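Q: What would this chain look like folded?
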Amino acid sequence: MTSQGLQTEIPTIIKTLKSFYVSYSSNYLKEQDNNSLMRAHLTDGLIAKIERMKLAIQTDPIIRAQDFSEEAIKTLQVKHLDKNWYMNGKICRTDYLPPSATRTDN
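A: My prediction, written as structure tokens:
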């Protein structure tokens, strides 16, 4: 994809990423299953890696927190960094959780 083509796609990609994180986080808080959401948006390899990480770190690597609230969902932001890299971040209470980068391949 050309640089100009990517620029026109950035708002759509941000909207899609934010929608994924909001849906995933909302399901997490309601203790609902995220498997169908993950299958719709993530590769099988990434899903397997996430499952291994959950066992190793004893927390959800997508949310990156053991203590999570609806307030955090309201503060979720997704920003374009460079090329296919995006950052998401949220604020929990008065503490800022470090952002994480997400790469998208078109």
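The chain is about 50% helix and 20% strand.
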